[in-house]
Amino acid sequence: MDTIYNSLQAIQANIHQAKLAANRTDDIRLLAVSKAQSTDKLREAYLAGQRAFGENYVQEAINKQNALNDCNIEWHFIGPIQSNKTTLIAQQFAWVHSIDRLKIAVRLNEARPQTLPPLNVCMQINSSEEDSKSGVDISLQAMLAKEICNMPNLKLRGIMAIPAPTKDFAKQRAQFKIVADAFKNLQQQGFKLDTLSIGMSDDYIAAIHEGATIVRIGSAIFGTRV
Ligand SMILES: *Cc1c(COP(=O)(O)O)cnc(C)c1O
Asked: Which of 216, 217, 221 most suits a substitution to test ligand 1, by most atoms within 8 Å of the C-beta?
């Protein structure tokens, strides 16, 4: 039967295999993307050992956090950020993957409660040529990184990207390589970064070959979103 437990086992095995094939010895974390999935499904994944969950919508996430407050979950915010939601995000999450402009970083830094550790953040990078894609341009990423590093309540961990979907493995790798090169470029400039958040259900194997340290997987764990 295709249970959440079985799906998690299969994905962890695939991650392990891709890691060996890519000659990597560092850690790759699985973020379970649970947007539009029921609290019962999240609990099932939690009971199967999953601890990090990614959500895209603030109110939906808070409802689930309340329903699962007996669980030791690390919550990641991965969706587009409206500036009027920054206070709740700064209070309710351990990680934010989708900072795409300075204003959002400033507001998260101001709103992060002093009682909590600094908020772990990634900059969302626009790795494609399309103007419509969200994320900061690669040419501007170092400027934003520098600003974030001066914010005491944020801890810059790395970058996140969502390249255009394609079924072609070589194209997937080529797109992720652009992101991985941008990541290495920041490291070479002296930014101490450890997180490359790339790869989803249909392309995480390619992402691991290009250096992903967090893969964000939803439908392959929970099934199609309703
Ligand atoms: C929905 C979503 C995912 C997971 O997508 P799947 O294809 O279901 O694995 C990953 N990252 C972000 C930012 C998302 O919005």
From this structure: 216
Q: Return the ligand 1 atom nearest residue 56 CA.
A: 15
Q: What is the pTM of this model?
A: 0.97
Cα of 115 from ligand 1 centre, angstroms: 30
Q: Which atom of ligand 1 is nearest to the CA of 97?
A: 13
**Which residue's alpha carbon is nearest to atom 13 within ligand 1?**
78
Give the range of the structural domain holding residue 97, as residue numbers without chain letter.
2-222
Count of domains for the chain:
1
Mean confidence (pLDDT) of the chain: 96
Query: Which residue, by CA, sits nearest to atom 10 of ligand 1?
Result: 216
Q: Which residue numbers in the chain have pLDDT < 50?
A: none
The answer to whether 28 and 213 have CB atoms below 8 angstroms apart is: yes
Residues 79, 114: contact at Cβ < 8 Å? no
Where b means 16+ CB within 10 Å and e means fewer, 119-137 reads bbbbbbbbbbeeeebebbe
Domain CATH number, residue 173: 3.20.20.10
Residue pLDDT, tens place only, 133-156? 789 999 999 999 999 999 999 999
